[in-house]
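User: Run a structure prediction on this.
Assistant: Running it now.
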Amino acid sequence: MNSGILVWDSPSACPSNFQNSVLWRDAGLESNKSTVSIPRLVEENATTLRSRYLEWVYELGEQKINEISVVESLKMQSGLSYWWLTQLSEKQNINLSPGINDAIKLMAFEMWAEDETLNSVTLSSNNKLLVACLQSWCESKGIPFLWVKNNVITNSVSFARRTYKLLPNVLQALGYLGHYLYRYWCLCGVGVKKWKESKAELTFFSYFLNLDEKKAKLGQFQSAYWGELPTELKDQRIGSNWLHRYVDHTMVSSPREAKTLIESFNDNKNSNQAHVMLESFLSLKLVFNAMLVWVRLIFLTRNFEKSLSKVNSKGLWLWPLFRDDWKSSRLGSRAIMILVTDGLMRASMRGLPEQSLGVYLYEQQPWELSLIHAWKAAGHGSIVGSQHATMLFWDLRYYHHFRNYSSCENGSLPMPDNLAVNGPVTEKICLDSGYPASKLVEVEALRYLTSKIDDEAESRVGWTVGSEIRLLVLTDYSPQATQSQLLQLENSLQYFGHPISILVKPHPNFMVNSLDYPALKFVVTMRPIAELLEQCNVVFCSAMTSAAVEVYLAGLPLVTAKPNDSLNLSPLREIESARFASTPCELHSEIMDALNTSITKDKREDFYIIDPTLSRWKTLLRKYLTAVVIR
């Protein structure tokens, strides 16, 4: 038997010919003297590891280039530092920057290895970037290192996608820009006249998503993101402006359909609202200026990587995991689109009459930072981020190193004047992460005030041994996560000895086709969750959906998918009774245990602020809208 350690990065079973094994993906096993689960170590040291990663990103931004920090060096003519818009600063580890998860696992491995004597390290993995990082660490410690490729078959990629990826980044970016302009040019000028002539002093920034379909057909705007707030403002004759970001979904499947809806909302004389899309401000001049900034950026940063790659985390070299993120932020389609979006934000803010208050959906995406900077540069009043769903511990977009929050230097991190949090759980998360307490303000959870789910009800459809399992499946907006979840369910059916019927409610951003899963018999539905919970006795949620909290608070048996190669992104991560499944066998086991276990749950008020009168939102609006009376 080999006396060294085997680092096993594969979904298949780990071989037993090593004395000690380190499982890079599998969180299902308890760590012992011979087997160590890295995902478990990550969870056991979560706060320390997250802080360490945020510190590494902070140090990247502070790295000197010709005696000037990266943040300062990337300051654009507008005064906003492009650094905050890069993938490195965004930290989107859900589906954009997979290297983040491996970086955090490497940190956990390094912490564990400090107390171990390692004779050699053998890594079984197809991830060449991980190989480079772990090999570098072993060499720095004088530990013999061996890389062995595993036999796992990777997902196939279409010929068109492979061809596109083979193109130089600059050509990819230009191609993407051309496609974007072809698709979105129809929105040019839509609603702009009403926007510029608006008498309102309150502006909202939102996604064109989660619309009330029945009201939309009548020319009335209502979105689940904002609950009854737009109706309340309309009833009190308080004008409002709305800038929307288009997202493909089932109800509005093209920009042309969005154009029709925006025009119908603006034609509604009773709404006292002005609606535009972000692309309403497109122009050839704007696109040309964005391309000029992009070309300057490419030349400015041509030698940055040499300095950035030197930044390590306590001797741990992580740069190979992020080289492509940096390249994409400089050269790729993402770079040019971020600059176009930044230009659109500045154009929209210049054309808007002076505002007292702006409110936007808070997710810490690059467009939000462009918005904050453009809003303040245009001389408008205060701007508030509205935290509209759950704030996940491992969704790193939401977090920055604490020194970023306190910096007042020119080009520093754009921050809202207030962050409106929707409950005590989120408020605690923000405070624990170092977010300034003085900037936090509590408001009602608009998305959940109108929920028809009865929190006091027991499981709607009881289950006894031998009876039918009625399973509701709530999927994700990510195609990869949804496919993984449904394949996990499909492969688990062999373990069930009971009849089972399945309802699947897809995320509106990604529809599910039952023909893609021939061995999995299910019915797709878009009915409200509240109605569906009345018909099921157990729920299987995707890894990160906020709907998991709704199901948990409703008191139904719940199992959450947990991909074994990612971090735990569930909003129920810290709930002791929460159930997670990484494999088909685990899924069957957890579902059966959930059906046979009495349920203990928290009250809705423990998660969200619930007050149908919107007293906190009204207080916030009164603070800034001094020229109107809010009852």
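The CA atoms of residues 492 and 584 lie 4 Å apart.
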